[in-house]
Design a protein that fits this description.
alpha/beta; single chain; about 475 residues; elongated
Length: about 475
C-alpha cells in the first residue's frame, strides 16, 4: 500500500454523476496516493436518465476489474487482496473526507466467501441432462459439453442521499386523534412509492414512536411539503427521518396535553421519562399513567415539519477536497457462472450478497431491495445495452422486445447475508440500501466469466461473440 503521507488530488469538470464516479473511483479501499481527473463529455447519443447507482456503477466496474488484475499479477487470492487493502471506519477518502461510520468491507468479503457454493453440474440427473440448468436453457444447445464453471468476487461503495452541498430534506405531516374509540395516527408525505416499501416503513415508524396500532398512510400528493425524489437510496433515511421527527413532535404535544390534564394526579407526569406504548402513556419503568383516548378526547394533534440530514459541502473544483457525502453503503457479491465456451453462452447460477444495512427496519423489504439491485446488476453484466446505429444515430432496440432485462427465468438464486452495524448519525442507525447491490453484482459476474474463460473482458454487457472471439 502507498505511504500514508501520500497525496490526494481530484479534479472535477462537471458535477453530479461525475462527482459520484470520481469521488468513489478508488473503491472501498485505502489508497493514499491518488490523482484523479474526471471529465464529462457531451455526445450526439440519445439523452439518458439516472440509473440505479448514479455514477458509482461504472466506477465500481473499473476498480474491481483492476483489483482482480493486480491480484493476479501478484499471485494473490483476489478476496485476500481486497481484504488487505479494505477501508474501515476512519479511513480518509480521496476527497479528504473521513469515513465516520462502520465500513465493514473486509467482513463483508469474508461473509460472502464463506457462504456455501452451489453444487457443481446441477444439470446432471439419472434421466439425462436437464437443459434448463445449462447455458442456452431450452434452446438445447449443450448437454454439458464445453461448459466451464467460474467464480468471481466484487465489493463496492455507494454514497447515500444527495451530496455536494445540496439541501437534502423531506417533509412529513403527522396527525393523531381518537377515531371510533381508539387512537389513530395519519402520516402524510409526498414520497413517491415505486415499490421500495416506504409506505410500510412510515407506518412502522409511526407505530413505534406514537404507540398506536392503527396508522393511516395518506396518499402521497403535493398538499404537503416536498419529499424529494425516490432516488439516491434516500427515502427511508430522509423521509423516514422526517416521519420520525414529526412523530416525536406530535408525541411531545400529546404529553403536554396529558401533563396539563392529569399532571396533578401523579408526580411521574412531571418527573419521569414518558413514552407512548400500546395506546397508553407509560414511564420508562413501565408504569401506566393513562390511556391516549383519555388524554386526547376530542383533541387532534397535527404537525408538519421538515427534516434534514447532516449538511454536506461541494467538492473543491481544483483539489477535489471536501466533505461531499453524508453516508456510505457497502455490499459484496460472489458470482457463480457456467459458460458454454464453444457458443459463448452464460448462465449465472448464483449471486450471493453480503451487505451492511445499518439497521433493518423491515427485514423482508431489505432482502427484497438487495435481491432487486443484484438482479439489475446482472442485467448490466450480460443483457442490457442500448444499441445506436453509428450512421443514423437511431436506437436499434427501442422496445423491451429487443432491449433485454432479466426475467424470473434469468434470475439466479440470490442468498443474502444482512449485517447490521448502526450509523449513529442516521435515524435508527439505518443505511440507504437500494443502490449498493447494483454496483458490485456486475463486476462479480464479469470476474466469474473471466475466471471461467481466461479472457480480459473490459466491457458490459458480455455478448457471445466476446467469448468466442467472433466479435
Amino acid at each position: 500500500m502507498p505511504d500514508r503521507a501520500g497525496r490526494r488530488r481530484l479534479r472535477l469538470r462537471l458535477p453530479a454523476v461525475v462527482g459520484n464516479a470520481s469521488s468513489l473511483s478508488v473503491g472501498p479501499y485505502v489508497v493514499d496516493d491518488v490523482d484523479i481527473e474526471a471529465v464529462a463529455l457531451y455526445t450526439n447519443n440519445p439523452p439518458c436518465g439516472a440509473m440505479r447507482g448514479f455514477g458509482a456503477v461504472q466506477a465500481c466496474f473499473a476498480y474491481e476489474a483492476q483489483m482482480d488484475r493486480v491480484a493476479e499479477e501478484l499471485g494473490m487470492d483476489p478476496v485476500e487482496f481486497r481484504q488487505l487493502n479494505a477501508m474501515e471506519q476512519g479511513t480518509l477518502l480521496p476527497t479528504g473526507q473521513p469515513v465516520d461510520s462502520p465500513a465493514p468491507v473486509a467482513e463483508l468479503l469474508r461473509r460472502v466467501k464463506a457462504m456455501p457454493l452451489p453444487p457443481e453440474r446441477q444439470w446432471e440427473s439419472s434421466e439425462g441432462a436437464d437443459v434448463r440448468q445449462l447455458p442456452g436453457g431450452l434452446s438445447n444447445t449443450t448437454h454439458g459439453e464445453g461448459v466451464v464453471r467460474g467464480i468471481g468476487y466484487a465489493v463496492g461503495i455507494k454514497n447515500v442521499g444527495f451530496s455536494e452541498g445540496f439541501d437534502d430534506y423531506s417533509t412529513a405531516r403527522v396527525r393523531m386523534e381518537v377515531v371510533a374509540g381508539e387512537p389513530v395516527a395519519t402520516v402524510h408525505t409526498a414520497m413517491a412509492e415505486v415499490g421500495q416499501g416506504g409506505v410500510t416503513v412510515h407506518a412502522q415508524i409511526a407505530r413505534t414512536e406514537l404507540g398506536v396500532s392503527q396508522v393511516t398512510i395518506h396518499p402521497a400528493d403535493t398538499q404537503v411539503g416536498s419529499a424529494g425524489s425516490t432516488s439516491a437510496s434516500r427515502q427511508t433515511y430522509v423521509t423516514g427521518g422526517a416521519v420520525k421527527n414529526a412523530c416525536e413532535l406530535v408525541r411531545e404535544k400529546v404529553l403536554e396535553i396529558g401533563r396539563r390534564k392529569f399532571g396533578s394526579y401523579h408526580p411521574a407526569w412531571a418527573t419521569a421519562e414518558l413514552l407512548l406504548e400500546g395506546g397508553k402513556v407509560v414511564t420508562d419503568a413501565g408504569e401506566v399513567l393513562g390511556d391516549l383516548v383519555d388524554v386526547l378526547e376530542d383533541d387532534a394533534v397535527e404537525i408538519e415539519a421538515e427534516w434534514r440530514h447532516r449538511p454536506t459541502e461541494p467538492f473543491d473544483l481544483r483539489t477535489g477536497q471536501g466533505n461531499g457525502h453524508v453516508q456510505y453503503s457497502f455490499a459484496a457479491h460472489r458470482a457463480v457462472v457456467e459458460v458454454d465456451t464453444e457458443l459463448g453462452l452464460v448462465k449465472v447460477v448464483e449471486l450471493a450478497c453480503a451487505q451492511d444495512v445499518g439497521k433493518a427496519l423491515n427485514p423482508l423489504s431489505v432482502v427484497g431491495q438487495i435481491q432487486g439491485g443484484t438482479t439489475q446488476g446482472l442485467g448490466v453484466a450480460v443483457m442490457e445495452e442500448i444499441v445506436v446505429d453509428p450512421k443514423t444515430a437511431k436506437v436499434r432496440n427501442p422496445s423491451f422486445t429487443d432491449y433485454l432485462i432479466p426475467t424470473i427465468l434469468d434470475t439466479p438464486t440470490i442468498p443474502v447475508d444482512v449485517l447490521e452495524l448502526a450509523d449513529d448519525h442516521a435515524p435508527y442507525g439505518l443505511r440507504g440500501i437500494g443502490e449498493a447491490p447494483t454496483l458490485s453484482s456486475t463486476p462479480a459476474v464479469l470476474a466469474a466469466i473471466r475466471n471461467a474463460t481466461g479472457l480480459e473482458l473490459n466491457r458490459t454487457p458480455v455478448r457471445p461473440e466476446h467469448l468466442t472471439g467472433t466479435a
